[in-house]
Design a protein that fits this description.
Number of strands: 12
Order of helices and strands: HHEEHHHHHHEHHEHEEEHEHHEHEEHE
Oligomer: single chain
CATH class of the largest domain: Mainly Alpha
Largest sheet: 5 strands, antiparallel
Number of helices: 16
Number of domains: 3
CATH architecture of the largest domain: Orthogonal Bundle
């Protein structure tokens, strides 16, 4: 379910939407070089080579096609010269990933490919033959479409394997996450750990968002401006690490992390000076400047450190530590929804108007919510009448969950906007359930992994780019222009 929180195991769902995007913008077709042979002079004369990437190349026509696709989406774009450089870098990264996936033997068999295409056709309520006809009618050959899909799957598998292996999650991180979440669920989120008494050793859990400052005065000023804005946002109701994740999406050089519980001597001195008098759950009053850039800091918690004398037995030490986590009661909600996805050609006003029309029909009892979901919803749950099953706290993106929690049983929401599109929600039932310790740890690990994934992914991409052999030949000219 695309509006649910990200899960790396949702591979088939991810591939489905990737391929639909490719299908809708077939002009993204890429001519990938599959061997280490000398560049074909005929290709050079027709398309022109923009860049050599290891044993392959990026053509100027590929850049033209990708720019046409971006412009077709109607999004705001920079000037053509800047856009060509941005698109070229994206294509270079894609080529590197595909080359590495092939070298690692991450191939997709014909049988696998046919099964995935059949699933895509079924999700679009089409037979295999009907789907093939639609692809061909879009202006590209079905064989080309299959090759694009095969490449996308191989790259996705390679990316999952490589990035997933780099994400490390400690038991301490999981324990800290569960502690904070349980406080929130029990309604005592403002309560903090037992503070250290005078003279006792203290542990401080600090999180940071780091904005690097590279270059001259202009770059320094821009980094400071970004840091000040993030500080203002962090002082609001925003989730601090989620705020960092969003900032990193816009600027991959931005890093965010929870440093975990540390005694003051294990914190950078400039950090400790900035948060010395900052309470748990509060943001430092000012941005911290270091030689590398700017840091926005938040004290997640402060607590007395548990220190056992050398003579203390292991049993006594265990008694001094927090007790084993227990099952906790939670409220689960059974709901269904109608989703209109974000896409070119559908404005927010149009989506909101359409969903408001469906809402009015359900409220007037002239239409059934489930039947409307089957007919109009653009989510995988459509075939089940939009049913989502039982959902607990944190299972859905915040905007969706907050709107759902405000509804009475049987009530239909007004249109709700999330990062995935516009939703109409109806609550069917609620129940009390127990969240086991095992489930708590599984959930915590998935959420921490989600927080770390974007930053790890961006670092991995930079590493790929830095270790590849890339030679830029001509990025400024379109394919129809004479080479310089």
């Amino acid at each position: 379910m695309m509006f649910c929180r990200f899960d790396l195991k949702s591979f088939v769902c991810t591939i489905f939407w990737v391929v639909i995007a490719v299908f809708a913008n077939f002009v993204n077709a890429q001519d990938v070089a599959k061997s280490g042979t000398v560049l074909d002079s005929k290709v050079r004369n027709i398309d022109g080579i923009a860049a050599v990437v290891n044993t392959g190349y990026v053509t100027r026509k590929e850049i033209d096609d990708r720019i046409a696709a971006v412009k077709k989406q109607g999004t705001k774009i920079p000037d053509d010269a800047s856009l060509r450089k941005i698109i070229l870098e994206r294509l270079i990264i894609e080529k590197i990933q595909l080359q590495n996936a092939e070298q690692e033997g991450l191939t997709v068999t014909n049988k696998e490919l046919e099964k995935i295409i059949s699933d895509i056709a079924a999700k679009n309520k089409l037979t295999y033959a009907e789907f093939k006809e639609k692809v061909v009618s879009s202006g590209t050959s079905f064989e080309r479409y299959k090759q694009m899909l095969r490449d996308d799957i191989a790259v996705s598998r390679y990316r999952e394997r490589e990035v997933g292996a780099k994400i490390k999650i400690s038991d301490a991180e999981i324990d800290n996450f569960i502690t904070e979440r349980n406080r929130s669920l029990s309604g005592v989120g403002a309560t903090r750990s037992t503070p250290a008494a005078k003279g006792e050793i203290e542990e401080i859990d600090v999180a940071q968002i780091f904005i690097p400052a590279e270059g001259g005065a202009g770059a320094q000023a821009e980094a400071k401006r970004q840091a000040d804005k993030l500080l203002r946002d962090a002082k609001g109701d925003a989730d601090f690490l989620q705020l960092g994740a969003l900032a990193a999406k816009d600027n991959p050089k931005i890093k965010f992390q929870d440093l975990g519980y540390r005694t003051p001597d294990r914190l950078p001195q400039i950090f400790y000076d900035a948060i010395r008098n900052t309470g748990g759950g509060q943001v430092a009053n000012a941005v911290v400047k270091s030689p590398a850039g700017y840091h926005v800091l938040k004290v997640m918690d402060r607590r007395a450190a548990v220190v056992a004398p050398a003579s203390q037995s292991q049993a006594a030490l265990q008694e001094a530590t927090p007790s084993t986590p227990q099952n906790i009661p939670i409220t689960q909600t059974m709901a269904r929804h109608i989703l209109l996805r974000n896409r070119a050609g559908l404005t927010d006003q149009d989506a909101e108007r359409r969903l408001a029309g469906y809402r009015d029909q359900v409220r007037a009892k002239t239409a059934d919510f489930g039947e409307l979901a089957k007919k109009y919803s653009e989510d995988g749950s459509a075939s089940n009448g939009g049913s989502l099953g039982w959902m607990g706290p944190g299972d859905l993106v915040p905007e969706f969950e907050q709107a759902m929690n405000r509804l009475q049983i049987g009530e239909v929401s007004n249109p709700v906007k999330t990062e995935f599109g516009w939703h109409l929600i109806q609550v069917l039932e609620r129940r009390e359930a127990q969240l086991t310790v095992e489930k708590q740890r599984e959930f915590a690990k998935a959420r921490i992994r989600e927080r770390k994934f974007e930053q790890t992914y961006q670092d991995w991409l930079r590493e790929l780019r830095d270790t590849a052999t890339v030679k830029i030949l001509n990025v400024d000219d379109a394919a129809t222009s004479a080479p310089r």
